[in-house]
Amino acid sequence: xxxxxxxxxxxxTAPAPRRALALPGFLSRSTLLRHLLxxxxxxxxxxxxxQQLDPFRNFQxxxxxxxxxxxAGLTLLVGMNGQLSLGHGALMAVGAYTVALxxxxxxxxxxxxxQVLPLSLALGVLVTMAAGxxxxxxxxxxxxxxxxxxxxxxxxxxxxxxxxxxxVFNSEQGLSVAxxxxxxxxxxxxxNERWQAWVALCGALLTMLLLANLVxxxxxxxxxxxxxxxxxxxxxxxxxxxxQVLAFVVSAASAGLGGGLMALLAQSVxxxxxxxxxxxxxxxxxxxxxxxxxxxxxxxxILLVALPDLTHDSTLLVSLSPAAAQRLEGNLPLAVFGLTxxxxxxxxxxxxxxxxxxxxxxxxxxVPAR
Amino acid sequence: xxxxxxxxxxxxxxxxxxxxxxxxxVLIWRAARIxxxxxxxxxxxxxxxxxxxxxxxxxxxxxxxxxxxxGLLIGVVVERAVMRFVDHASPLSEVIVALGLxxxxxxxxxxxxxxxxxxxxxxxxxxxxxVGDVPLLSRYDLFVFGAVLLxxxxxxxxxxxxxxxxxxxxxxxxxxxSRLLGVNVGGMLTLGWALASAVGALAALLVIPTxxxxxxxxxxxxxxxxxxxxxxxxxxxxxxxxxxxxxxxLILSYVSGYLGSDVTPMAVLVLxxxxxxxxxxxxxxxTVARQA
Lengths: 370, 292
Prior knowledge:
The structure holds 2 protein chains of 2 kinds.
Chain A: H1 25-29, H2 31-52, H3 55-80, H4 88-108, H5 117-139, H6 144-164, H7 166-169, E1 175-176, H8 192-215, H9 218-228, H10 230-235, H11 240-266, E2 268-269, H12 276-289, H13 294-317, H14 322-347, H15 351-366
Antiparallel strand pairs in A: 1-2
Helix pairs in contact in A: 2-8, 3-8, 3-11, 3-12, 3-13, 4-5, 4-6, 4-11, 5-11, 8-11, 9-11, 12-13, 12-14, 12-15, 13-14
Chain B: H1 2-32, H2 39-57, H3 60-82, H4 91-113, E1 128-131, E2 134-138, H5 139-161, H6 163-173, H7 175-180, H8 185-207, H9 220-233, H10 238-259, H11 264-278
Helix pairs in contact in B: 1-5, 1-8, 1-9, 1-10, 2-3, 2-4, 2-8, 3-8, 5-6, 5-8, 6-8, 9-10, 9-11, 10-11
């Protein structure tokens, strides 16, 4: 996953030799094998990690995984295809509400158990894909600020729709989601958070594997070609509008999965959780993480969970009146996020991943090639 | 029928505010080719400044003046300290930076004033004056119309009749040539942002008392509606922004009057999509070469 597009801010030096690690021949030839191996490795490491972490950290890990689905999809759309979406929070809401309604409907009919989870998640992904296709069809005809405006309207309209159709979505209170405890085969006292982390991580790893392969394929090259120069892409025989709709649908599918996982983790869905702020957070996470590559999405997802936690801890260090502390707690992360976003955009458009890559490239240049 | 007449006048009053806000967007678009997604947050910040002055002095008009002045200042600061440094190569950067600004402004307002709705007063009564038996307009609506009209006429005079206006138009139209001819292009850009921000602040001052009250997010929906209005009129055209604002105001008033106010956000989305898909350049666009 390290070999991705050139970010807008990539240093204009001669292309460094990419074969930093000497991979066995069959691995450097087959992208799928390489990505599969990486996924399995990541899976093993994460499995061991979940065994060590306490329940709260496991829950945070699960949240990171759920966010990762959405941020990876958004990176594909914004970073690889150049389409801006301010509505991914709303797409997550579509996935979350679909999963919630499916889980509850199945539970009402007496169909319970953890084996229905893939079914309802898949349904959530499908419905979100349909929503993404509708927005994508419109988006393919729009550029820059117009697209941003439409997706902004989506981000505001979807939470409002839960109030309009309140007999289905139960307006502001939202719905609670019927979720089964971990399977008994894992043992009676198996911590629920660890199970949640497993479910969410499976979803995230699957998303990353599929997206990484997509990005390295012909489709991925088409996406980037359209981003860099639409006219040139069209001249090379790429159907620009179709490519853009495809990017939107894939991105929506990931967001839908992320939203569905969120619903399972929180065991409830409400419009407040999927407000415009969430959409802005997601965008900010992928920008700060680095728009150029999917690894940036990982940093972004970690940041989304870690930064509110860090600011919370730092407000505890200063003694404040309860009212002031309460005001700070909700708003300080927002302010930090916003400031970081502006600074990153102006000073380091490559984000965290771009910065890491630049440091890596510099270190490699220092070491003389043998 | 009474209801229809009432909704029409209410929509026109809302539309006047949307027109002013859309005009602010158009001003910045014409000056810098940026859709200022932070406009709403900037306007709310100015409105909060006005609120502070009003509560401290007890005078609505001092607060009003302070908010307009605050709007000017916020525009200057945003342009000089942030937007000037944004890389204009990709249209995404400006939007993303503006969104970062939204997060910062709303968070700071939330920290200082809290995330509750604060009551915003009006200088005139909001009870409608009746003609015959039909309630038509309140004194406040008349004040809104007057204020927006004053701004429109003032801006039109500024851009068409004064030397500063000419210089502003020139530096937006051909920055390099203007610079050669001795126009302070950077200064004109700052002035454009300041003016737009002040007009946005005025719109916020006018609209917030008619909604739930002052809140860091008070202008979110207004921004989207005004963006729709600006798109309806074509982002390039000030008269278009006014007509677009009135049209969107009327449509939203009918929708919220007959279908319920929670349908409004969806109506905005549908309207925006319809306009963009049918006539992307807006109703007042001149024919331009298709971009890609």
